[in-house]
UniProtKB/TrEMBL annotation:
HAMAP family assigned to the protein according to its UniProt record, in alphabetical order: Rib_5P_isom_A (MF_00170)
Catalyses which reaction(s): aldehydo-D-ribose 5-phosphate = D-ribulose 5-phosphate
Name of the gene this protein is made from: rpiA
Keywords: Isomerase
Gene Ontology process terms (BP): D-ribose metabolic process; pentose-phosphate shunt, non-oxidative branch
UniProt cross-references to InterPro entries, sorted A to Z: NagB/RpiA_transferase-like, Ribose5P_isomerase_typA_subgr, Ribose5P_isomerase_type_A
Listed name of the protein: Ribose-5-phosphate isomerase A
Amino acid sequence: MSADSQKRRAAAAALEHVTNGMTLGIGSGSTAKHLVELLGEKVRAGLTVLGIPTSEETRRLATEAGIDLVEPDEMTRIDLVIDGADEVDPDLNLIKGGGGAHLREKIIAAAGQRMIVIADKSKKVAQLGKFPLPVEIERFSWPLTVQAIRKALAENDLKSATLKLRPGARDAGGGVYLTDSNNYIADIQCTRIADPAALDAALRAIPGVIETGLFVGIADLAIFGTDRGVETLGA
């Protein structure tokens, strides 16, 4: 079974946790695309939910699927957030942001009553770090922010980590990737992250760092699609 089929299997299993009347945070990326398609089928069959998309692409897909969307306000209760991940460790710490939407994803995930992560089995790892860690940074004086990030990495036993701005065609002026919030992303290749919470705190303390792709203490359940069905981690 392909990784894409495993992702769809995980998305279908996550939808078993969705009940009528819920407000859902809807994630971004290739796995979330399957979620939106399958959720749209349930909505057309009579399920009533409200969705809060975490990226402009997810908004577009959800609208096309016929899912009612809502802009959250101070009174909004997000019953459940379902999103993908690039890596998941045994403690349900995550690396997210391969698609560049981790700022919006983390805002919604932190506000949700519960978060379910969906992924193919390759995303289950013993330790975070093989997948590059994305850090969203302010474009103003970004070289100073990068300088501070390098210092923080060295102080967290990651002197050998490499960092580069994510390239992309969205910034016509320089070929640098722009997020939906018009910020840059610095991708950090760490190889291993011994203490995700400490690294997350150190990076977020830097002026100019808007958010990291480390999701620590946020996810409640991970569902991994496999060739034979699904595996779960958490409750």
